[in-house]
Design goal:
The radius of gyration is 20 Å and the shape is globular. Strand 4 and strand 5 form a beta hairpin. The strands form two sheets. A six-stranded antiparallel β-sheet has the order 1-8-3-6-9-10. A four-stranded antiparallel β-sheet has the order 2-7-4-5. It has helices spanning about 5-10, 95-105, 115-135, 140-155, 170-180, 185-190, 195-210, 210-230, 235-240, 245-260, 260-275; strands at about 15-25, 25-30, 35-45, 45-50, 55, 60-65, 70-75, 80-90, 105-110, 155-160. It starts with a helix and ends with a helix. Mean pLDDT is about 85; it is low at about 160-165 and about 275-278. It has two domains: about 5-160, Jelly Rolls (Sandwich); about 165-275, Arc Repressor Mutant, subunit A. It has eleven helices and ten strands. With about 280 residues, the chain is α+β, with helices and mostly antiparallel strands.
Length: about 280
């Protein structure tokens, strides 16, 4: 899925917004960023996962991810959805008490009545300001995102984590996130969830658009990228830590998914940290 708002943030925006609608547009590979994300679901239903929990959101609900929280999302097969995603850096929030209120944990909120209409109006203003003013909209968008957070603070908090018990695939995904560093084979996984390997594979592909092994490899590679960037551990050690049986298989899967070798990934990160020479 093309992340238009993410591209704007990468180009230096403090606040960015995008509306999208589709069917089977899934982002099942976990990702994280150094800014907040508000995911406002306008139609359909959506699953959102973190390391610890899986959430299900319904229309007119918002889920808020603080910076640094790894997450992913997907919909049930064939279910259309429409959403607005809002990204903003902590410095874009104008009031410290508002920033503190949304910084501690992932939360799902359900505005109601007049407050829902107010939330929808602010979201529309954010999208319009960005479309009309482009880079010149940032000051206005900071004010609007702060207003939106104030309205969210008045909304009902909902414990959407019960979604983990809503279906087998949600449970499988949570299991993979908890045990990705351990040996996992399809037969044992199917037995754990009282299914056949064929049926579980078909059901997983139907719901997420990914094979189980493909999803698991994506999860392991994502973890490896973080370790390569954030630690000085040897590549062979990282390979074992994220669940690969041997370094050669790790290198092959890593290159296939990222387009570079683990050593190239580490070298690129260090060049980015140093920045251009003057």
């Amino acid at each position: 899925m093309l992340d238009f708002a993410g591209d704007l943030m990468a180009r230096g925006r403090e606040v960015a917004a995008a509306r999208i609608h589709g069917v089977d547009e899934n982002m099942v590979r976990p990702h994280l960023h150094d800014y907040f994300e508000i995911y406002f679901l306008e139609a359909g239903s959506r699953y959102h996962g973190t390391d610890d929990d899986l959430y299900r959101t319904e229309p007119s609900e918002l889920i808020i991810f603080p910076p640094g929280v790894e997450h992913f999302s997907y919909s049930d097969d064939g279910v259309p959805f429409r959403r607005v995603v809002l990204y903003f850096r902590p410095d874009a929030v104008l009031y410290p008490h508002v920033l503190e209120a949304v910084s501690s944990e992932v939360s799902v909120v359900r505005p109601g009545g007049a407050n829902l209409r107010a939330v929808e109006n602010v979201v529309e203003e954010l999208l319009t300001a960005q479309d009309v003013l482009g880079d010149g909209a940032q000051d206005e968008m900071k004010l609007l995102i702060t207003q939106l957070l104030l309205k969210i603070m008045r909304a009902e908090r909902r414990d959407a984590r019960l979604a983990r018990r809503a279906g087998r695939i949600a449970d499988v995904i949570h299991h993979l996130h908890e045990h990705y560093a351990e040996p996992i084979d399809l037969t044992t996984l199917a037995e754990t969830f009282f299914s056949s390997p064929f049926y579980l594979s078909r059901e997983f592909k139907k719901h997420t658009g990914s094979t189980i092994i493909g999803y698991l490899n994506g999860l392991r590679v994502g973890r490896a990228e973080r370790l390569l960037q954030e630690t000085d551990r040897r590549i062979g050690q990282i390979s074992a830590e994220v669940g690969f049986a041997n370094a050669s298989h790790f290198n092959r899967v890593f290159r296939a998914r990222t387009g570079m070798s683990p050593s190239q990934c580490r070298a690129r990160e260090r060049v980015d940290d140093v920045g251009p020479s003057r």
